[in-house]
């Protein structure tokens, strides 16, 4: 059992290092593909967080915490109905109650 856990941990660590190396190589490849150094080169996503404010830039588009609150209010006004979400909630509630009854039946 110890050898299995050790092998699993080493395999997971190796995969993690491989992913990080791949990301670094991809980043270097993007810079090489441009052919020149551009100080205005922007990251895909940058996040700035102050005490009260949250600012994010995604693909050059600024998003602040106020924008997120406005979108949240807009979604609440729409009152959108998600069929799969409601079915998932009902299914999880039914499975939870069935498992509780089964455990109570076994425990008695």
TrEMBL record:
Pfam families: DUF3679. InterPro entries: Uncharacterised_YqxA. It comes from the Bacteria. This is DUF3679 domain-containing protein. It comes from Neobacillus paridis.
